[in-house]
Structures
1.
Amino acid sequence: MFPGALYHVYVRGNGCQPIYLDDNDRYKFSEILQKILNRLKWKCYAFCLMDTHYHLFIETPEMNLSKGMQSLNGIYAQYFNKHHDLVGHVFQGRYNAIVVDGENYFLELCRYIVLNPVKAGIVERPEDYLWSSYRQMVGIDESMPFIKTSALLKHFESSSGTAGENFRKFVLDGISGDSPLEDTRGGLILGKDKFVESLKDIMSYSKSESEFTKCQRHSNRPSIEKLFVIGVRSVKEARDKAIYKAYIDYGYSQKEIADFLELNFATVSRIVKKELDYSKY
């Protein structure tokens, strides 16, 4: 979306089937992930490999999220099918990516990700789960060197206890708390109003990019009711321009527009085509 963007990326197995059948699969996935991180200069702040899905919290210094995710999922899927003598899709469609407001949600999201195994009832304590970034963060082991621990732990430096101990307390305090993802806007943005507002121009510019679904790219668009207020609907020229804008700029389908305005689909299609022809001159 933009250089230096933070993303919460999560991917599920096809039909909610397992994407890791044993620890060898998890080791292989971690190995592929580390190579992608190094090659594309991504920074990984948190991760968790569950049986049927995985979570990553990453920063992309360059606008190459789509490229990296295609490589990560594609290479791993090839390995998985070959290793287990399987065929077909490993993952359920494309990845899901949420742009994160780092100023307000960095710590909350890191905590949410490593608490997944606890909240799922797999383990009682986050340190008992081997396949998340938690053990690295609190200094139990150093098996995941690609995790950027310093960026997180600097927030927990104080005169009372080590940064790792303070982070441990922070995580445990969140076990009974709500998920920060409940604040996600339109399935794409996790952030406060100011952050969402700052992305409006970027979202408009990015509307043709492949990193997000059409629905996600228009998550901060105005409602169709606001685009077609009574004053606009009652003046044909204004209505036609609003139809064109709703379709081209904000991603509403011609059927959605026709249904809202109680017009024939062919009428809306003809208006869009006419306005497209005018825009060429």
2.
Amino acid sequence: MTETIIKLENLTKKFGNFTAVNSVNLEVRRGETIGLVGPNGAGKTTVIKMIAKILRPNSGKILIRTNHSDLQDLRNVSSTISQIGFLIDIPNFYNMTAYQLLKYFGKIQRYPKDKLDNRIDELLAFFKLSEWKFERVRNFSKGMTQKLGIIQAILHDPDIIILDEPQTGLDPLARIEIRKYLRELQSLGKTIFIASHMLYEISEICDKIALINYGKIIGFDTVENLALTLKTSELNCLLLEPLDAEKILPLLNRIDERLSPFLDQNLDPKISKIPILYNPEHQGLKLYFNGKNESKGEILKILVNEFESDFTVISFTQPKTSQLERVYSQMVEDSTPEGPIKLKGVDIKNEK
């Protein structure tokens, strides 16, 4: 096991009579990418602002490991920690040029002076902002300002990177660029903590997901392990060519009969009335199965070998995004402000 680098112990924050964060316990290990996911008002930004020392907790502790030391109470650590980079909520900057702004951040984060200009140019080029280097920030679009916010968070090459809704305001191509860069940071062993409501982005890059609602952690694990709480699991099977419309129904009945031991025959009708669906637009089958890994292997084997004359399988996946969407929806809907919830016989407590 790698060492714990951030540890939240019974972290609580109140605003008057409103409890925004309620006794949160969470551990982030070195090199992990953790996604903090929850509805608006669930407490995501409040948690991050407390880690950034913008807000003070009413009770509980934030422990952090810096400069290869032991875990220390954040209250006793310098406010200018060169090992941590933050993007807090929607960034607002002084009306300086991009270069002036990044030069300022580089200096206060003690990045080597002789390397700072090259570092600024490198990041501006990656995020396609080189032409705007000497433009004032007030002329930037929302997406460009967001990119600049991400650049200032990673400018000083921190070991720990904490991002609050980093994809806000970005177009699809920019989101792809951000995911690419985050994967590069992962490959360098950086520890990344991301708060977001964009489940696809989270499922693509995070090692573990922390689900938060009413200020409490209601689930913390990998997407795959969280999915074990689902009432059913799904597989997507992409076909080379569309099925003949006149043969679809009898074919689906044959598939259903052959795969019956592995399919979810007690499927919640709110999800689907039948365990096999065909989508002509995407030329694919969606199968609701019993969630077992060995069942996936058997299903693929049968579809490829026994239905070879009916269709050709070109892709067979268990989509993480749809799994996370359903885990998220189910846990959030079933959680309450009162405390731990019970889901499919498993107590989901506010700890890991």
3.
Amino acid sequence: MSADLRAVVADDEQLAREELGYLLGQVGGVSVIGQAVNGVEALATIEQLQPDVVFLDVQMPGLTGFEVARRMLHTRSPSHIIFVTAYDQHAIEAFEVNAVDYLLKPVDPARLRLAVDRARRRIASDRAPDQTGSAPGLNQAELEKLIELVSQRQSRRERLAVKVGERFLLVQAEEIIYASLADEGITVVTGQLRGTSNYRTLDELQDRLDPGVFWRVHRSHLVNINKIKEIVPWFSRNFLLRMKDDKSTEIPVSRTQTRRLREYLKL
């Protein structure tokens, strides 16, 4: 029987560390030999204990998980890195395209088992006679590309300024129900407010939003597909979208986007 993998868990939340430790116990074959509550402590713990695998929370005080990984690469640490992240599913795509191991919070036991099995295989491979000493499964170029892609996806989800009267209010992108082009500019509607955007065109606004969530269903309307209350059949087999704002606003869907909507919702 193979020896247990020696692991360090780095996360600034105690409950998250305890939960991951418990799940690793359920998976079996992994011994948690150290924990860290921030990036600086993680580096010191890793250097002292030289674990086989490190579970790195991406968002930690002091040094982020990415910064810890950078320094591990510079010191040519042999530890295998598995990122643990609370990023949303769209940002997670960046991890996947870089073939980097990651776990999405809350950690799924089956996904954890898969990551541990993969780490075990990679570590065994890196201990072969042609081992270079670099960190298993990750190099500097992959890490930098990962950081760039995650940053790009996160930038699409930042807060937006909406003018209401003489004031500018900041709203989270996911709070937007829809945006429509009107004579006075672009109207932006959330559950709590209705105002205007300083973006000149819907194209500019759309570029700052998550394309998987915000659909240009009509040349004059951009909607958050998670804020659709009802899909109403309209003439010529088209649809109206009744939105979740206080007025239950009805937004027409163009013929082209009707086809996309049918495919997405299996209508």
